[in-house]
Design a protein that fits this description.
single chain; alpha/beta; Spo0b-associated Gtp-binding Protein, Chain: A; Rossmann fold; GMP Synthetase, Chain A, domain 3; five-stranded mixed beta sheet; 9 helices; binds guanosine-5'-triphosphate; binds magnesium ion
Amino acid sequence: MFTDREIITVKSGDGGDGMTSFMRFKGKASGGPDGGDGGDGGDVYFVGDASKSSLIDFKFEKKFRAGDGERGDSNNCHGRNGADTVIRVPAGTVIKDFESGRIMADVYYDGQKVKIAAGGKGGKGNARFTTSRRHTPHFSQKGEQTPPHKLILELKVIADVGLVGFPNVGKSTILSKISGAKPKIANYHFTTISPNLGVVSHYDESFVVADIPGLIEGAAEGAGLGHDFLRHIERTRMLVHVVDVSGVEGRDPVDDFEKINKELAEYSETLAALPAVVVLNKCDIAGAEKNLAAFKKKYGRKYSLFPCSAITGEGLRAALDEVWNVLKTLPPAAPVEFEPFEYEKPDENGFEIEKDEDGAFVVIGPLVDMLIRNVVVSDYQSLAYMQSILKDKGVIKELKRLGAKDGDVVVIGDVEFDFID
Ligand SMILES: Nc1nc2c(ncn2[C@@H]2O[C@H](COP(=O)(O)OP(=O)(O)OP(=O)(O)O)[C@@H](O)[C@H]2O)c(=O)[nH]1
Ligand SMILES: [Mg+2]
């Protein structure tokens, strides 16, 4: 089974919590703080793997999770970092964020490794909160929690040349003749239902040709197998149009060619603008000459036309020579260009202040969420730490600007306190 688009969920590891603990000596109740930091959560990576040719693995396995960081321990022991998760995908896999549809990475090369989701930072142990005035901090920081992310994986196979044409015109037969590939060939439409790749050795050079399912008129609106498979030739450097010039199926070859061009243009202007060579196939069938002459008359000046017979092999060499001549002039195939999109770490500095019906100032926002996670309300020092953060981050200043006066109530999460200027 071939799959070229899957939706999966990844989650990097949460950071481990910092530890609150104090040194213990024989005969002494407690020494200084020695709570260690929590470990960092593991990252989620993708790696290109040339031995894979489809996204089939992701049909069955859709959830990936990196390891969480471990909690810090007493004796200043740092918690162990969570294990990274490395997801192997075929070279040519484009990774998109599901929510925004934005491209995050094009895993194009074998062995290419990209980080998609970073693990949460471990929380600091209480030993880190010691200051000249605070000798025995009874609080430590919680590890950073990371959200899961939905991703779209899209495989766009990497090939130099794309074969396009109506069904049954002989695309797969041509691929089988010019490369070692063994695609299914049969005398009916839509024999090919997923892309086939073949490596063509041409003198001392080689290039990759992709054979995709046949297109028909209206493919862009979903007719036949639709035009989704055009994704696979989006990054090819040139096209080979294969036209059945024998007309055995009762269609006009010129008309076929024009319809395919129209479908390509409807899918993407870039694709339609690729350099193209036209192979007029099935020349061995009686009746081909007349159509051939008509085709040459109409397009002989605009395109390089190559009358061929994939069955006898006649004409294929000349077509390949031309393909190679064109390829030589083109830049190498390259990953897609995109504005990089990365998951941002939640901004822990943002806050807003609202006034509730009793006139209390209610502070909300990510800064408050962070404080709620990290502050132990029952602990005086922890509250003092919160106060200092509120000052540093400009909350106190903003309260004043909004007219807070001594004795006004300020609400932060579960904590209510009187404002003192
Ligand atoms: N006489 C003759 N028959 C050919 C030639 N090339 C291909 N055929 C036959 O045409 C039929 C279709 O060939 P395929 O290679 O499967 O065609 P395709 O374009 O890949 O078809 P789809 O995968 O359905 O789009 C087969 O029966 C081939 O044997 C040719 O040059 N001459
Ligand atoms: Mg085929």
